[in-house]
Amino acid sequence: MVFITNLLKRTVNEDNRKTEMFMTANRSVTTGLTASAVVSSWLWSTAMLGSSLVGYVNGVSGPFWFAAGCSPMIVFFAVLGISCKRKIPEAHTLLEIVRIRYGTAAHIVYMFLCLVNNLIAVANMLLGASAAISAMTGMHIIAATFLLPVGVAIYTFVGGIKATFLTDYIHTFTIVIILCYFSIKALTLEEVGSLSNLYELVKAAGERSPVAGNEQGSYLTMTSKGGILFGILHIAANFGLVIMDTSFFIKAFSASPKAVVPGYVVGGIAYFAIPWCLGTLASSVVLGLEDNPIFPTYPRRMTSTEISGGLVLPYFAITIAGKGGAAAILLITFMAVTSTLSAQVIAVSSIISFDMYRTYWNRTATDEDVIRWSHYGVVFFALLASAFSTMLHYVGVDLGWTLYMLGVLTCPGIFPTAFTILWKRQSKAAAIISPLLGMATGIAVWLGSAHALYGDVTIVTTGATVPCVWGTVASAISPLPYSIIITLFKPENFDWADFRKEKLAFEVETSSVAERRNSAVAHVDIEIISEPSNADSQRQLKRWGRIAAIWAAATFLGHWVLWPLPMYASKYIFGKGFFAAWLVIAIIWLWGTLIVVGFYPIVDGRHQLLAVWRAVREGCHRKTERAEIEDESSGSGEATPKIVEGKVEH
């Protein structure tokens, strides 16, 4: 990534020493790269490890609810992203929007909420990944926790958000290739053989170890109490993770206006297949072969510690592909963590540089000052995240606990933040008080439910499903009435035009554009993104906003209501043919995701790729000319010529 960053600087003038390039990629990222980055943002190690975990515990409903708990809010974020593009196109972070509208007090409150969100999200990733790496390699779990962020800090330090986008693409492409390989390899295993035989294996597992709360104890049904509780918990928690994650806003700000909505919609729908397909397939194979001598833990079943630590997926890979499978899981876990961690690091870095340093410590900060503090932020957060994850490990917290409880802390800002961008009536008092009351309500309900149901408040009881569901729902929903009620006392009528009064963007260097059009790089269509200032641009952005709203509603209804809820109510247990169709559709969807994240960015970015190639060839040609001239000069005794802008001067 360091090499690619330097190459882009030399060939297409993408100078990451400039703040607008470092933080927002000059707001010119294309649809394909945006879609790939969106998938990558949610392709946590937790997504793969966690979907397999809930599939093992709840059956086929678990991976489906995991996927349905992610895709609707990814698509919904397109609504917020395009609204920000229209109302405050120069913003770098969510917190700048909050500060301009509500002032310092609200800015500090939301800074706290965003940092908590980023920290708990990274801890969730590191805990699961380091446990999986330790189990497969023997590496000390704390060594893995500290080593994982090292590479991330290096390339993010050098390349900024564009390096994050490109790394997202490379890592996500590699991960999905490996997952597609698993989707075929699992069915070629002699002990599995076919989808029909896999069905019989899972059916037998349900008879040996029936699932409490599932219809007839079967793993092969959507009628699962544990599954739907996890679905409710997951969708609420993920709305908080998306809306309060400043990295999502940064990626939206970095995309060109016409790429925001299609990028998030395509990425959100493509993402659905990954936890659904992988989680269903991995958990089915593990359940079916757990009593087979080829399974790593044979003759015993997996322990609760192994399950909660996220080892269902590694054991699946080892079962179907031996050491090669373990190596593949090691690779995709590393790539998933580094890719998503990069987005979190750049998000916190932006908060430190823009919302702390530039706002409170040095209002006249130059471009160079902000970049320097962005670098400090990258290093600081990488160390903080590792240290915090280490602390959680030593107090007995693992992937399962953080996966279930994180919504209690990430959800209070959902409605107040959305209202900040979409509802001009929300008052300053409502914006400040409602998320704090929501967090207090959520924590009280969470701990109170654990004590009421289990008689004690411990890591075990607070990580149980029901207390986490109640706490997350209370944390997510309670700020809605709090905000509305407080606003009714003294509603505001905010003028969206006020967002444009404050200059936020640094100058983007565009002087070389005309020159580049006449050079080898000129074949690329260079798009200069600026604030939409005319009525046509505003109408176009409003149209994209309506399209985003329609897709968000359709995705939520399809993935969360019309598809799963009738299946839950019907108490249907999958037959052999239905189970085979279920997995075939999931596998086809996964291969479609491979096309979206792997090949679409190449097609969409072909002009810039050609421009880079031409510039590299031009540079090589000039070097060859220089070498030939120097050889001739040295042979004839003439003075060595010099090359000035491609022209030979003696």
Automatic annotation (TrEMBL):
One of its GO terms (molecular function) is urea transmembrane transporter activity. It holds the Pfam family SSF. One of its GO terms (cellular component) is plasma membrane. The keyword Metal-binding does not apply. It is found in: Membrane. The keyword Heme does not apply. The chain crosses the membrane at residues 21-44, 64-84, 105-127, 139-158, 228-250, 262-289, 326-352, 373-395, 401-422, 429-449, 469-489, 547-565, 577-600. Keywords: Membrane, Transmembrane, Transmembrane helix. It is a multi-pass membrane protein. This is Urea active transporter. It comes from Neocucurbitaria cava.
